[in-house]
Amino acid sequence: MIAWLALALVALATPAHAHGTLPGGGGFYAGLAHPFLAWEHLLLLVALGLLLGRHPRGSARIALLALALALAAGLAFGTARAWPEAAGAVLIATLVAGAAIATAMPVPPLAATALAAACGLAIGLDTGVPVPQGGVAFAPYAGVLVGVFLIALDTMALASVAHRPPGPIAVRIAGSWIVAVAAMLLALQLQRLGTA
Amino acid sequence: MPHLRSMLLTAVLFGAGPALGHDGGGIGGLASGLLHPISGFDHVVAMVAVGLWGAILGGTAIWLLPVVFPLVMALGGAAGVTGVPIPGIEVGIALSGIVLGLMVVLSVRPPLWAAAAIVGVFAVFHGHAHGAELPAATDPAVYAVGFVVATGLLHLGGIALGLLGNWPAGRAAVRLMGGMIALAGGAFLTGMA
After folding, report:
1. A92 interfacial to chain B (CB closer than 8 Å)
2. Which of A47, A66, A67, A131 is 20 to 30 Å from B5 at the Cα level?
3. Cβ under 8 Å to B: A residues 164-183
4. Residues 6+ positions from A42 with CB-CB distance below 8 Å
5. Helical H runs in chain B?
6. Shortest CA distance to B123 belongs to which of B73, B87, B85?
């Protein structure tokens, strides 16, 4: 029951809505807050966590390592220039992960690792954390990394304990909700791209 | 029962006050998204009917229908977002109330695929109606999360009501609710409501 309560709280993530943008920007805490503030990123990380939560620890660890490395690469490249394509990639990855959850499709460890890497890269490129002037250069990146792993690991933990009914069913329903949101946002992005 | 309590509590938490409280009353945020399916009675009765019917069918259907609905709703939503016209949206929504209400009142038990197909067809109309408003939202992502979660919660509410069918008196109450939903759908179709 605690797991369900926590899942509900993670899904709502009130601080993201309450604060909008952090005053001052930059720094570790701005980076930490970013995955919680960007709902598309939050949705993707929840989907990835639900997906990896049903994997054995060994393969989940490898996928998490891929997530971390790809995220670091994405953040590094994302600072160099803007990547408008990354927003679409975030939604496509969300759609894929959500569909796998909703249909309870078995995802081989290699595919899960590839998906985790794609998620990390897309989130990193789409984040574009500003480096604070006079601050520690890597602080916001470290914040994003911690924020991403907070969401992913918490959701993974919830999914991993949801073995008995109605746990697996609730996870599948959550997956269908994630697919619905991602599909509509992707359509909106394509529509805006077409009219631009 | 503990599982049911957990699910209901989760359902309540998903609609928690703080998220609404911080929305600032603006149009197109989480509050607007949550309220969109709830403020339209034609949406509400159809969503509740999906849950009621799933509970009547039992077994896999109790969760399959609430999974199928959002998946197919996304297609209608995408059409609505991109401006692809689907004729008779309002008629389709009203018909969903009539048909799904009749399924409940008559306790129709088709094969699972057929039940999923019926629910899926109507999901397209509901999705289109929601999706058409998405481009105007101030925060489309939050708005979409709001109305998808609200839709899902209405399904869960229907399932919870449908579980009354485990008792003889409850079965009659569930069928009565189905009848009222069908009548409401008829009222929407004829313009009486």
Report:
1. no
2. A47
3. 165-166, 169-170, 172-173, 175-177, 179-183
4. A13, A16, A35, A36, A151
5. 2-14, 17-21, 30-39, 41-57, 61-82, 89-105, 112-131, 140-162, 168-190
6. B73
Cα–Cα distance measured from residue B161 to residue B174, given in angstroms and rounded to the nearest whole number: 7
Three-class SS of B32-50: HHHHHHHHCHHHHHHHHHH
Whole-angstrom CA distances from A63 to A109, A111, B102 are 8, 9, 48
Q: What's the angle, vertex CA A39, arms to CA A35 and CA A138, rounded to 5?
A: 20
Give the pLDDT band of residue B6 (cuts 50, 70, 90).
Answer: low
- Rounded-to-integer distance, Cα B119 and Cα B180, Å: 18
B130 in helix, strand or coil?
A: helix
ipTM: 0.79
- Smallest CA-to-CA distance from B97 within B161, B189, B191 is with B189
pTM score, whole prediction: 0.81
pLDDT at B169 over 70: yes
Nearest C-alpha of chain B: how many angstroms from A99? Answer: 9
Mutating which of B23, B62, B71, B84 best tests the A interface, going by the most A Cβ atoms within 10 A?
B71
Closest CA to B184 of B46, B52, B91, B39: B46
Backbone angles phi, psi at B54, to 5 degrees: -60, -40
Give me the residue label for tokens 């609200």: B150
A43-61 average pLDDT score: 94
**What's the mean pLDDT in A101-117?**
94
d(CA A116, CA A118): 5
**Contact assessment for residue A171 and residue A50, using Cβ atoms and an 8 Å cutoff:** yes
Q: What pLDDT, on a 0 to 100 scale, did the predictor assign at position B4? A: 56
CB proximity A77 to B under 8 Å: no
Q: Residue written as tokens 């574009």?
A: A128
What tokens were used for B95?
Answer: 């018909």
pLDDT band per the 50, 70, 90 thresholds, residue A13: very low
pLDDT digits (tens, 9 = 90+) for B34-69: 888 888 899 999 999 999 999 999 888 988 999 999
**Best CA proximity match to B8, nearest among B158, B143, B181, B142:** B158
